[in-house]
Amino acid sequence: MINKKKAFTLVEITIGIFIFSILLLVVMNVFSSGMKGSQKALSHQDNMEAANILMAQIEYDLSRATKITFPDWNDTQSEAQWKFESEDGKEVTFFYEKSSEGVHRNVTGDGIAPINYYFAKGHTVNISFTHFAVDAGGGNNDDLLVEKHGMWIDLEVGDPKGKYPSFTMNKLIVVRRPF
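RESULT FIELD:
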């Protein structure tokens, strides 16, 4: 009686490992591209969320403004300051500026401790404020009769490494109170 064992030869095992390796590389490549797409979408969502939160805060603060200190009329700067005067005569000053930590918001005023807050922390931010005003009287800056008044804000928020596209937002916020 002859003992015949069925076994794989070394050549068959090598071919099997080679085919398995190719299939594993293809599967890993598909998963890797999916992860890259997911990371890009998460970064875009994070940038968009940071920009929306900052813009909502600026809009809320600016909607209550009774005086825009700077930038000057129809001028553009990377920082802005405006004041709010309550009915009881207390004055609150809002100051926004670009900083290394995002956008710095400083609130000071009568009877309140200074409040410092940073928006879009951990992001690269470019922001500019344009004080928009239309003079109806044709006079100098001391006796302007303002027809329309507000702040045009250009905001760009990106990831700190600059690896993914940034999110850009532009908004005109009309100030309803006369100055």
